[in-house]
C-alpha cells in the first residue's frame, strides 16, 4: 500500500472512532481470548494509538470439506483419483467464502471507514488484509493492544490477549490475526546440538574406508559423523540418478526472519561438494518486503543450509528461495505497518495466487503449537492442504527440542501448559503437527539412530488422521501408560519420516561450518521428493502432491525403519524409537531407489 493511502485511512479512522458504532445493532462478543500471554512474554508498554498495524481477517470457508475430500482421494495411491490434482481455479472455488460473508464483512469494514480501496483480498477472497491505526483496531475489536516483550530474546510486538467481533459476524469470520498470536517461528538449525556430532559409541580412529549404509551399499566411513551431498546420495541410495532440469520440475525453499541465502557461499559450497553445479544459481522471490542482503556477514545459517543442500542435491532442477518479510523487533515507525512476524499467511497469500508453483517445498521454521491460537493453526494448515490439493508436496522440519520445546537452552525449558493450569506437558511443534504436511525428524550416525533432539509427539489441536491410525495405535499400545497425561494420545502424531540431521557441512560466511537440526533433515528429504517428482514428470505422470497417504501405505517398504534412540525433554527420557512408526523418527529414512520404483509403478510389491 502506498504511503498516501495509509495517510487517508488514518484520517478516516480518526473521524470514525470518535463516534462508536454498533454493527446492525449487535452486541460485541469475545471471539478469541487467552488466559494470559504465553510464558516468557510480558506486557511492556501501551501500544501507541496512531501506530499502524496490519491485520488479516479470515472469512469462513463453507466448501473446504470438499477440498479436503479431494485432497485425500488424490493422494491415496489406492484411490482411482490418485494424482488427479486440482487446478488453481478449482482450489480457489473450494476455498472461497460465501457471498453473504463477503458482503456482511464489507459492510462492517466500511462502517469503520475501511472501503474496498483500503483493503487487500487474497486471490480466493478468503483473507482480507487491512492496515489500521491501533486506535481504530481497538474500537473495531473492542480490545486494548499493548507492546509485549519476549523476556529472553528482547523481541517485542503489538498484541492483545482477547478480541471481540459483533455477534452477527462470528459465523462469517474465522479469526483476526496477529492479535492473540505470540509465536516466533524460529529456524530449526543450530550449530550447537551434538557438539562435534560424536556419540558415545563412536571412535574417531575407526574412521577409514567404508561402512555399510541402510540400503546395504558400502558408503564412505566419514558419513558416520559428517554429512555431505555425497553422503546423502550414498546413504539414501540415490545411485546415479540426475534430474533432467527440463521436466518442468522445481524445488522451493522458504526463508523468514531476515535469513538470506548467500550467492557467494552457494558457489563455494558447490566447489566443495558438487563441482558439477558450480556456476548454477537459484532464483529469489521477495514477499511482503522480504530483503535479500548479499553482504557475506548477513548470510543466514538456516537459509544457506537449506539452499545449499536442497539445490545441491537436485542440480540442475531450478530452485526458488522465498524471502518473506515481517520479523521482530517491532520498530515504532508510525507510518509503516509494524513488522508482525506472522510469516505463513503472507507466504500462503502469495503462493496461492501463483499458477506455476515448485512441486516440492521445504520449510525449517516452527514454534510450539501452544504459541499459536487453534483457529490460526487450523487456517494455516488448511492453506497447506490447499497446496497439497494442487499437487504440491509440503515438508516441514519436526523441531529440535525432542518432546520439549525448541529453546536453545534445554535447562530453561519448563514444559508448562499455557491454559492456566500450569500442568507439565510435552510441547508439540507447529506446523509440524498439521496433518496436511510431511513432518521430518532427524537421525545421526551409521547405522542410523534417532538424533536425541528430534522433535516428535502428538498434537493438541489436530486429531489423528486416518492415514496414520493403525501404526500410531500400534505404537501407543506398545508404550502402555508411560507418559500418560503428558501427551494427547488422540492427536495427530509426528514426525512422518526422518533423515540425517547432524553435522551437515555447509559454507557459511566464507568458511565450512557444521550445522545440525531437523532443519537439515527437511531439505534433505525434500530434495529426494523433488527428484521423485522429476522422475514422475519425465514419465508424463502427475506430481506426488500430499505425500503422507502414500508414505504410510506402500511407502513403508521403501523407507529404512529406525529402531534405536529417543528424544528426551521435559525432564523425561522422551519417546523411544521402535520397530515401525515412532514419534522420534516416524516411518524412517528414505531409500530413493525403492521410492522411485514405487512412484513409477515398477515396484514388485
Ligand atoms: C494475483 O496475481 C495477478 C497476476 O500476477 C495479480 O495481477 C493479482 O493482483 C494478484 N492477486 C492477488 C489477490 O494478489
Ligand atoms: C565437523 O565435525 C566433524 C566431527 O566432529 C569434525 O571432524 C569436522 O572438522 C567439523 N567440520 C567443520 C567444518 O567444523
Ligand atoms: C544428546 O546427545 C548429545 C551427544 O551424545 C549429548 O551431548 C546431549 O547431552 C544429549 N542431549 C540430551 C538432552 O540428552
Ligand atoms: C570420503 O570422504 C573423504 C573426506 O570427506 C573424501 O576425501 C573422500 O573423497 C570420500 N570418498 C568417497 C569415496 O566419497
Ligand atoms: C545468481 O543470481 C544472482 C541474482 O540474480 C546474481 O547476483 C549472481 O551473480 C548469480 N550467480 C551466478 C554464479 O550466476
Ligand atoms: C546488509 O547486512 C550488513 C551486515 O549485516 C549490514 O551492515 C547492512 O546494513 C545490510 N544492508 C542493508 C541494505 O540492509
Ligand atoms: C522455568 O522455571 C524456572 C524455575 O521456576 C524459572 O526460573 C524460569 O524462568 C522458567 N523459564 C521459562 C522459560 O519460563
Ligand atoms: C491444560 O493442558 C494440559 C496439558 O495439555 C491438559 O492436560 C489439561 O487437560 C488442560 N486443561 C484445560 C482446562 O484445558
Ligand atoms: C487432544 O486432542 C484432541 C484432538 O484429537 C483435542 O480435541 C483435545 O482438545 C486435545 N486435548 C487437550 C487437553 O489439548
Ligand atoms: C511424454 O509425452 C510427450 C508428449 O506427449 C512424448 O513425446 C513423450 O514420449 C512421453 N514420454 C513418455 C516417457 O511417455
Automatic annotation (TrEMBL):
What positions constitute the catalytic site? 302 (charge relay system), 306 (charge relay system), 519 (charge relay system)
Q: Which GO terms describe its cellular component?
A: extracellular region
Q: Which Gene3D superfamilies match?
A: Peptidase S8/S53 domain (3.40.50.200)
Q: Which domain of life is it from?
A: Eukaryota
Q: How is the cofactor bound?
A: Binds 1 Ca(2+) ion per subunit.
Q: Which residues form the signal peptide?
A: 1-18
Q: Which UniProt keywords apply?
A: Calcium, Glycoprotein, Hydrolase, Metal-binding, Protease, Secreted, Serine protease, Signal, Virulence, Zymogen
- Any idea where this protein resides? Secreted, Extracellular space
What Gene Ontology molecular-function terms does this entry list?
metal ion binding; serine-type endopeptidase activity; tripeptidyl-peptidase activity
One of the GO BP terms on file: proteolysis
Protein function? Secreted tripeptidyl-peptidase which degrades proteins at acidic pHs and is involved in virulence.
**What's this protein's name?**
tripeptidyl-peptidase II
Species in which this protein is naturally found:
Coniophora puteana (strain RWD-64-598)
Amino acid at each position: 500500500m502506498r504511503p498516501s493511502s495509509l495517510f487517508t485511512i488514518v484520517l478516516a479512522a480518526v473521524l470514525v472512532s470518535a463516534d462508536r458504532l454498533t454493527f446492525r445493532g449487535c452486541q460485541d462478543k469475545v471471539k478469541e481470548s487467552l488466559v494470559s500471554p504465553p510464558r516468557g512474554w510480558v506486557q511492556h508498554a501501551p501500544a501507541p494509538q496512531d501506530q499502524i498495524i496490519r491485520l488479516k481477517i479470515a472469512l469462513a470457508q463453507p466448501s473446504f470439506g470438499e477440498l479436503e475430500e479431494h485432497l485425500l482421494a488424490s493422494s491415496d495411491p489406492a484411490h482411482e483419483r490418485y494424482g488427479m490434482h486440482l487446478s488453481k481455479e478449482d482450489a480457489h472455488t473450494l476455498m472461497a467464502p460465501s457471498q453473504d460473508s463477503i458482503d456482511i464483512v464489507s459492510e462492517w469494514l466500511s462502517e469503520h471507514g475501511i472501503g474496498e480501496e483500503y483493503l487487500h483480498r487474497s486471490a480466493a477472497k478468503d483473507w482480507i488484509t487491512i492496515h489500521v491505526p491501533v486506535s481504530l483496531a481497538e474500537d473495531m475489536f473492542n480490545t486494548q493492544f499493548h507492546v509485549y516483550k519476549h523476556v529472553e530474546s528482547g523481541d517485542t510486538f503489538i498484541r492483545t490477549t482477547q478480541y471481540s467481533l459483533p455477534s452477527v459476524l462470528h459465523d462469517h469470520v474465522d479469526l483476526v490475526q496477529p492479535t492473540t498470536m505470540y509465536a516466533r517461528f524460529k529456524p530449526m538449525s543450530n550449530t550447537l546440538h551434538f557438539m562435534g556430532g560424536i556419540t558415545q559409541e563412536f571412535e574417531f580412529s575407526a574412521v577409514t574406508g567404508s561402512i555399510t549404509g541402510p540400503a546395504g551399499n558400502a558408503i564412505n566411513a566419514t558419513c558416520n559423523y559428517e554429512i555431505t551431498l555425497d553422503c546423502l546420495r550414498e546413504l539414501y541410495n540415490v545411485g546415479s540418478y540426475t534430474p533432467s532440469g527440463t521436466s518442468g520440475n522445481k524445488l522451493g525453499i522458504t526463508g523468514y526472519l531476515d535469513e538470506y541465502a548467500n550467492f557467494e557461499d552457494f558457489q563455494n559450497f558447490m566447489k566443495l561438494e558438487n563441482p558439477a553445479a558450480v556456476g548454477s544459481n537459484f532464483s529469489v522471490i521477495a514477499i511482503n518486503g522480504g530483503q535479500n542482503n548479499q553482504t557475506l556477514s548477513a548470510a543466514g545459517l538456516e537459509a544457506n543450509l537449506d539452499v545449499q543442500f536442497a539445490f545441491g542435491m537436485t542440480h540442475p532442477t531450478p530452485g526458488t528461495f522465498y524471502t518473506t518479510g515481517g520479523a521482530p523487533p517491532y520498530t515504532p515507525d508510525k507510518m509503516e505497518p509494524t513488522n508482525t512476524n506472522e510469516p505463513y499467511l503472507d507466504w500462503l497469500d502469495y503462493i496461492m495466487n501463483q499458477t506455476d508453483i515448485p512441486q516440492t517445498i521445504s520449510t525449517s521454521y516452527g514454534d510450539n503449537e501452544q504459541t499459536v491460537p487453534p483457529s490460526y493453526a487450523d487456517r494455516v494448515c488448511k492453506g497447506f492442504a490447499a497446496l497439497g490439493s494442487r499437487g504440491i508436496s509440503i515438508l516441514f522440519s519436526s523441531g529440535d527440542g525432542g518432546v520439549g520445546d525448541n529453546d536453545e537452552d534445554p535447562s530453561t525449558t519448563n514444559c508448562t501448559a499455557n491454559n492456566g493450569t500450569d500442568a507439565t506437558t510435552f510441547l508439540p511443534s507447529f506446523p509440524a503437527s498439521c496433518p496436511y504436511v510431511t513432518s521430518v525428524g532427524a537421525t545421526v550416525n551409521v547405522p542410523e539412530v534417532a538424533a536425541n533432539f528430534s522433535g516428535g509427539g502428538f498434537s493438541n489441536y489436530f486429531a489423528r488422521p486416518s492415514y496414520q491410525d493403525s501404526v500410531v495405535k500400534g505404537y501407543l499400545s506398545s508404550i502402555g501408560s508411560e507418559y500418560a497425561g503428558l501427551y494427547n494420545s488422540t492427536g495427530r502424531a509426528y514426525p512422518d519420516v526422518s533423515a540425517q540431521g547432524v553435522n551437515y557441512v555447509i559454507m557459511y560466511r566464507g568458511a565450512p561450518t557444521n550445522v545440525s537440526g531437523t532443519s537439515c533433515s527437511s531439505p534433505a528429504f525434500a530434495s529426494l521428493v523433488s527428484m521423485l517428482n522429476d522422475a514422475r514428470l519425465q514419465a508424463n505422470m502427475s506430481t506426488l502432491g500430499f505425500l503422507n497417504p502414500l508414505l504410510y501405505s506402500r511407502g513403508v517398504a521403501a523407507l529404512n525403519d529406525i529402531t534405536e534412540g529417543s528424544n528426551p525433554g521435559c525432564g523425561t527420557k522422551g519417546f523411544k524409537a521402535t520397530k515401525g512408526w515412532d514419534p522420534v523418527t516416524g516411518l524412517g529414512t528414505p531409500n530413493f531407489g525403492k521410492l522411485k520404483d514405487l512412484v513409477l509403478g515398477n515396484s514388485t510389491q
